[in-house]
Amino acid sequence: MSLLVLPTLTAWTSSRLTAILTAKTQADFTTAFDALFARNVNVTFNGKNLSREQYHAQLLSQSSAAAGEEGASVSVQGQLEVQGDQGQISGLVGVFYTSLVDSKFLVMAAPAESKVVSSFNAIIQATEPRPQPINPRIHGYFDPRRIVTVNQIATDQALHFAVPTKSFNSSSPDVTTKSNPGPFGGRFGPGPVHLNPIETNAHPETFPGDGEFGAPPVLIPGETIGDESHTKRQA
């Protein structure tokens, strides 16, 4: 007769924790909860000590079995275990997971969604006695392991999304559109455009009398410049 090999501590914890968070009904949630946590479990959640009933309500609010929730998915990003003296029958487990919960209620024609990110650390021991009498017709295995101490840190946030503007038809009733001003614009159209002289190929304006070396000297009647003289005419 071969001995039964139990699932590893991390596989056992992850699968049963997933069963809790993805339960469809509160009855299924309670069954999965009792299969993971001992009757006298010690709970620390976000630094606060909770009773078993309070922790039951806390996890229920984060699961798909909560009122108004449609479904949930769980993704385990990391897990670690340290076996006890008896191998897989007891030990320490750490699990880091993310769960997404879809609501039955719609926001802008899409289901509302919340995201839970959590670090879950537990001490596991064999606490459950084997049920008697054993029914030979029932095939399966008995797992006496339960979590006796859990320390969990979790954040819960609602996910926001933006509806594309193309989903609205501007010609539909009760839909108004607002045009944005252009890069130079205001309420009454674009303002003046200032161009660089290089762009307009502009040249400096030349005034009469200007030469290559500047304007010629001013001639005053009665003064002599070079060999020429200018006298004032007599009236």
Gist of the model:
The protein is an alpha+beta fold. Helix content is 15%, strand content 38%.
Descriptors:
Nuclear Transport Factor 2, Chain: A, six-stranded mixed beta sheet, NTF2 domain-containing protein, 10 strands, alpha+beta, single chain, 235 residues, 4 helices, two-stranded antiparallel sheet
Describe it.
The protein has 235 residues and is of the alpha+beta class. The chain has a domain of 138 residues: Nuclear Transport Factor 2, Chain: A. It has 4 helices and 10 strands, in the order H-H-E-E-H-E-E-E-E-E-E-H-E-E. It has a 6-stranded mixed beta sheet. The chain has a two-stranded antiparallel ribbon with strand order 7-8. Strands 9-10 form a two-stranded antiparallel ribbon. Helix 1 packs antiparallel against helix 2. The longest helix is centred in the first third of the chain and has 13 residues. It is elongated and about 140 Å long. About 2% of the residues have low confidence.
SSE blueprint:
Layout (H helix, E strand, L loop, with lengths): L8 H13 L4 H9 L2 E9 L2 E3 L1 H10 L7 E16 L2 E21 L2 E17 L18 E15 L25 E2 L2 E2 L6 H4 L23 E2 L2 E2 L6
Parallel strand pairs: 1-6
Antiparallel strand pairs: 1-2, 3-4, 4-5, 5-6, 7-8, 9-10
Note the gap between the termini.
149 Å
Q: What is the H/E string?
A: HHEEHEEEEEEHEE
| Percent of sequence in beta strands | 35-45%
CATH class of the domain at 9-128 and 140-157: Alpha Beta
Shape: elongated
Q: How many helices in DSSP terms? A: 4
Largest sheet: 6 strands, mixed
Helix share of residues?
10-25%
Low-confidence stretches: 164-168
CATH architecture of the domain at 9-128 and 140-157: Roll
Q: Order of strands side by side in the largest beta sheet?
A: 2-1-6-5-4-3
* CATH T-level topology of the domain at 9-128 and 140-157: Nuclear Transport Factor 2, Chain: A
Query: Structural class from helices and strands?
Result: alpha+beta
Count of beta strands: 10
The averaged pLDDT comes out at: 75
